[in-house]
Amino acid sequence: MPSERARVVVSDAVREELLAPLREEGLDVLYRPEVTAEDLPALLADAHALIVRSRTKVTAALIASSRKLRVIGRAGTGVDNIDVEAATQAGIVVMNTPTENTVSTAELTIAVLLALVRHVPRADRSLRSGEWTPSRFVGVEVRGKTLGVVGVGRVGA
What is the pTM of this model? Predict the structure, then answer.
């Protein structure tokens, strides 16, 4: 009797580069980034693995209804949207990818810093309300200054 192909449900939006290696390994990948919380248990009925980001909440009830589930992977940092205790009690491994968004987070921090020193959010609100007065939004030039992200974690490094 042939063995059953392992089924992986991906319930949040992820890049195709994440799914390609799974498919190349012969896994049955169900990519359903718009699945509702109500419909997810039916998808997980025959799933061996679940990949989430932050939208999907993996509750104790969802875990209890997933008979074949063996692995829950979080494509990102943290596992706060996964009931780790319930998963552990059910013998399900929970893992994450803590370095996946490190560069993006550092770059976004610099982008927000630049937006704030140039008053972009306030200027945007002013323009959208029809009250454009550019002299109120001069801000501070960063030329000649050093900008950076300081921290002891991966993003700061």
Answer: 0.73
